[in-house]
Structure formats: C-alpha cells, structure tokens
C-alpha cells in the first residue's frame, strides 16, 4: 500500500525489533520512542542550522558578510553560540512569579515539538496520523499563546507585560483568518487526516485550487510564528525583547529554539497543505521533494522577513480583522459554491 | 499503536526535551546574584513606579471578538468535512451561517471593537 524508501526502512526496523523482542506492544512502544527521538533531533538540528542560515541570509540581503570566524565560513557559529548560552548565568529577576516564569519557556517548546507528529514526511511516514489531524494541529499551535502570556505576565517588567499582551492580541487576531483559510482545504479533501490531505494533492496542488487561502496562510503563518515583518511581539526597537526580556542563558535560548522550530513548521505546513507534500516527479524519492519544498518555503519566509520593515501594532491588528478575515470568509463561500457546481456538473 | 497513544508518549518526551538543557545549564553556569543584577530591566536605570502596569482595554475587546469567531469556526469544521456529500442544503445553510458571522463582524466593526484606540 505505501511505497518509498523511508517507509520500507521503518518496516524493516520493525521486523528486526519484532524478531528481537517479540511482544507486539513493546515493539510499538520502542518504534514510537525511536521515531519521536528522530523528530526531536530534526527539530533541534533545524534550530541550529536556521540560526546560522538566518544570520547568513540576513547578511547577504543587507550586503554584509555575516558570521565567518568560527569554523569554515562561520559554519560552527551556532554551535559556539549554544555552548556560550549554556554557561551564561541564569539571572532570576526580583519580584517575579516564580512558577509561571520557570514554566513559560518549557511549555513554549512542547507545542512546537508536538506538531512534528502530524507532518507526513513521505508516503506513510507520519508519527500520529489521527483522524482529526489538522484540527488537532491548529489547536496545539494555538497553545503557544499561553506561554508567551505567562512569561510576559510573570516577569515583573513593563516591557514583558506589554509584549505578552501584544502576543495575545496578534495571535488571536490572525488565528481566525488562518482557520477559515484552511477550511477550504478541508472542504475539498473531505477529511482532516494529514495523510489524506497530501493524498488529495496527487494530481493538483492546493495552491492552484485555493490561491486566496494560500496568500492568507502565508501572512498568518508569518504572524503566528512571530517572524519579521510581523515580529511586533519582540520588536527590538520598541519593547526590547517582549515577553522574554527578563530571560537569560538557557531559558532565553529555549525561546529562540521554539522560534526557529516554528519557522521550520510553517515551511513544512505550507508544503504539506498547499504545495503537494511529498508529491513530485518520480526521479527523486518523496522525502527529497518534501525537504526541497520545505527549505524553499523557509528561504522564502526569511527573505520576506528581511526585506520588509516591521508592521505597526495598530495597523497590523486592523489588517487581520478588517482585511484578512473578510477575504477568508469570501474564500470559504467561493469554495463552497465551487465544489457544489463541480459536483452538479 | 493508536495515534493518540503515540501522541501521549511524544508529549512526555517533548516535555523532557526542554527540561534537560535547563538542568545541564544549571550545573555548569556561575551563580553570583547581586542586588543590582536582579532588578527588572528598564533602559538600564532603576525601575520607576509599579512594574505590573495596567494594560490597554483594547486587548480585552480583541479577545472577546476572537472568542466568538473561534467558537463559530469550531462549529463550521464538521460541516466542512462532510460538505461535498451534503449538496445544496449544506450550501444554503452555510450561506446563512456565514451571513450571521458577517453581521457579527460588521457589528463589532461599527462598534469600534476592531480599531486600536
């Protein structure tokens, strides 16, 4: 039923484990743990690579050189940064709400890691292909709002509080258009399963059928992951670093790990939902197409981020509610009429 | 294994993933807290007044409007999944539902809940 190198690799690993252990439920458990570890490693590696990539691309766009001292061509810069952040003193500011403050960076990383379970990397290669996949994915992504608010509220700093409030307003405002935009895809597919959504794009990618939704998704994805030009949450020139002004060392690093992991996630989601996932011409295996598309999407998002100036908070909020939401509603209407006409004909 | 059980295991692992580096960092980092170092940051000088400032009422208005729309999207998703099997009735029903949504949006717009004051 499934084909592809990754799927057969997984199957042969399962056979080896079955012959070694024999108990089916233990084999399942071990397979899950192995796959989850691989996903977490992908996430951590992507953060390391994208930190360097971001600085290099930013430097290229701004006609600078960028990091070029550590390792050949600055390749080891993010490793050096990580080691430096590890042994930085963890300053605990006065008057904080200790529990919320400590939990905030930890809880921020959990949803960003958890959504990797819903990504179909290749034919049949998906950790949890549950039947409410897309819905659960949206629900888990929106949980990132809470840790930002916790961090901002508990830090006992004016910048943090304002930053936390901005995060909530921004993410709430852009979540509604995003959910409405993705509704068109669900209407065409008739399923919320991630694998079914990719399967439905074997002939025509959804970027062709849902161009309006694609444009809305690009904007909302940038906002939801706090990428520039919509990074008013941490607008350096306005509110220092927003909700994580008071965090130092490893805790601060976790916020950035989550940010770069989210960058990867929006790249993967754009690929999966609009660009056909692992579908592509036959001369390359599916997962190669998946990663090529994903990395191109990430490059595109970084390009956008370093090209446009930061949006102002008031114009950004009214753009979400007064422009994107009506367009998203019109998209749902058009899709509904379109599917009806297609079915009648 | 069932997809939700897999998710549960992954959740526990994802919870451990950020805790491990914090513990490692706690072992190797220096700890020299001083009085000045622990002051919350405010442009490099001592903080002025209360730090837990009041926030703008506009945020609350956005949250209220969001709540309404989010509940409605939750109701629309089951409809979207079954849409192509339901035919004309579903289309008309959707027109009515989205029409009510639009009136709600228009009302919030006119009341000024969507503009930053």
Question: What can you see in these coordinates?
Answer:
- The complex is a heterodimer of chains A (345) and B (117).
- Chain A is mainly alpha-helical and 345 residues long.
- Chain A has one domain (5-344).
- Chain A has 14 helices and no strands.
- Chain A has helices at 5-20, 24-61, 77-86, 98-114, 133-142, 145-154, 158-189, 194-199, 206-209, 211-224, 236-239, 249-274, 286-307, 313-344.
- In chain A, helix 2 (24-61) crosses helix 3 and helix 2 packs parallel to helix 13.
- Chain A is globular and about 60 Å long.
- The two termini of chain A are 32 Å apart.
- By secondary structure, chain B is mainly α.
- Chain B has a single domain, classed as Methane Monooxygenase Hydroxylase, Chain G, domain 1.
- Helix content of chain B is 68%, strand content 0%.
- Chain B has 3 helices and no strands.
- In chain B, helix 2 packs antiparallel against helix 3 (88-110).
- The longest helix of chain B is centred in the middle third of the chain and has 30 residues, at 57-86.
- The mean pLDDT of chain B is 81.
- Classes of the chains: A mainly alpha (345), B mainly alpha (117).
- Chains A and B meet through helix 2, helix 4, helix 7, helix 12 and helix 14 of A and helix 1, helix 2 and helix 3 of B.
- Chain A: Belongs to the complex I subunit 1 family.
- Chain A: It is a multi-pass membrane protein.
- Chain A: InterPro entries: NADH_UbQ_OxRdtase_su1/FPO, NADH_UbQ_OxRdtase_su1_CS.
């Amino acid at each position: 039923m499934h084909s592809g190198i990754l799927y057969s690799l997984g199957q042969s690993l399962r056979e080896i484990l079955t012959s070694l252990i024999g108990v089916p439920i233990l084999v399942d458990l071990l397979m899950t743990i192995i796959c989850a570890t691989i996903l977490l490693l992908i996430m951590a590696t992507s953060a390391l690579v994208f930190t360097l990539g971001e600085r290099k691309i930013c430097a290229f766009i701004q006609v600078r050189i960028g990091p070029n001292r550590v390792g050949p061509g600055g390749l080891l810069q993010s490793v050096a940064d990580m080691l430096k952040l590890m042994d930085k003193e963890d300053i605990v500011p006065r008057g904080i709400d200790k529990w919320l403050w400590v939990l905030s960076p930890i809880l921020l990383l959990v949803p960003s890691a958890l959504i990797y379970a819903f990504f179909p990397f290749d034919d049949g290669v998906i950790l949890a292909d549950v039947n409410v996949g897309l819905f659960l994915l949206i629900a888990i992504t929106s949980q990132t709002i809470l840790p930002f608010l916790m961090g901002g509220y508990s830090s006992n700093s004016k910048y943090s509080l304002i930053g936390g409030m901005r995060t909530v307003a921004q993410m709430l405002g852009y979540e509604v258009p995003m959910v409405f935009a993705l509704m068109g895809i669900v209407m065409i597919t008739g399923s919320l399963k991630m694998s079914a959504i990719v399967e439905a794009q074997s002939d025509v990618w959804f970027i062709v059928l849902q161009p309006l939704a694609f444009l809305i998704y690009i904007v909302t994805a940038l906002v939801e992951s706090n990428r520039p030009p919509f990074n008013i949450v941490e607008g350096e020139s306005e509110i220092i670093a927003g909700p994580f002004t008071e965090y130092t060392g490893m805790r601060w690093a976790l916020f950035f790990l989550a940010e770069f992991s989210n960058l990867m996630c929006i790249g993967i989601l754009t690929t999966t939902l609009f660009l056909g996932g692992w579908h592509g011409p036959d001369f390359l295996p599916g997962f190669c197409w998946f990663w090529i598309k994903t990395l191109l999407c990430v490059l595109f998002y970084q390009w956008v981020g370093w090209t446009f100036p930061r949006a102002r908070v008031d114009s950004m909020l009214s753009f979400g509610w007064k422009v994107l939401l009506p367009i998203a509603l019109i998209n749902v209407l058009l899709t509904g009429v379109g599917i009806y006409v297609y079915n009648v004909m | 294994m069932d997809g939700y059980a897999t998710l549960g295991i992954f959740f526990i692992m994802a919870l451990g993933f950020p805790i491990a580096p914090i513990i490692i960092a706690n072992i190797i980092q220096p700890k020299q807290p001083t009085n000045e170092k622990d002051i919350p940051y405010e442009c490099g000088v001592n903080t002025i007044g209360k730090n837990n400032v009041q926030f703008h009422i506009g945020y609350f208005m956005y949250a209220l409007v969001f709540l309404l729309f989010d509940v409605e999207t939750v109701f629309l998703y089951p409809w979207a999944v079954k849409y192509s099997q339901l035919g004309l009735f579903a289309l008309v029903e959707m027109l009515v539902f989205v029409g009510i949504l639009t009136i709600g949006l228009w009302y919030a717009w006119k009341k000024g809940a969507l503009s930053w004051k």
